[in-house]
Amino acid sequence: MSYLSRESSPLSAELWQQIDAAVVETARGTLTGRRFLHLVGPLGIGAGAVPVDDATALSEAVRDGIVTTQGRRYVELPLLYEDATLLARDLERAAAASVAPDLGAVRSAARALAQKEDRLVFMGNPELGYEGLATAQGVNTLERKDWSAGENAFADVAYGIEVLLQKGVSGEYALAVSPDLALQMQRLQPGTGLLEADRVARLVGGHVVVAPALGRGRAVLVCANPENMDLVVGQDMATAFLEQSGLNSSLRVLETVLLRIKHREAIVVLG
Question: How far is CA 20 from CA 6, 80, 106, 223, 254, in A?
């Protein structure tokens, strides 16, 4: 029996294909971190821990004929999940009418799981020891001006890029902004004929994403080259069969994923 236990479910292969398609479509429309982070994997559900390197301290140490790697630690890939239930009567009704079943519950679970992944990517989980792009120690932090006035958003992002360049960090830049800041940039700049959002986007090669996981009043500028950071995927988002209870089918949408920050100076938090 496979890890997802689909063989023990009463659901048809065709329905599982529809479930998979619904999960993938919903996740793609929701995830924001994956839009600019380099992906590693999927490595499979059996991948337990992966190395996380500190690019500024990585080296080999030799003592008494024993070689160890300094600046490297192994971190567990956490499993994230959300559950959904398909009602037997709904499935039978759809089959009798020869129509596709309503997979709203599965889509809701996939959306919630995607949002959970983004919260882990951007905000981390301090209680469990996971850092996020906006919460990691040792990153560059800048005080953000009022982005609803003047050209402050453009100036802040330009200064953030200058900070990265001064520290020798160059490459593919990306900017993640909270929804309120994204709205504040939707205004014309006098004498330019351009929205503030368009001017900011040009600074980062068009790589601007709106990230609800950031909350309010926060933006994160990164140089997203894989030598600086990446996103490790063990089990990519998939749906497993849990049990049949009261004739209804309980499902679990799950994944294992980990943000790896290798070069902390490649991150600028504007807050």
Answer: 12, 17, 9, 33, 12
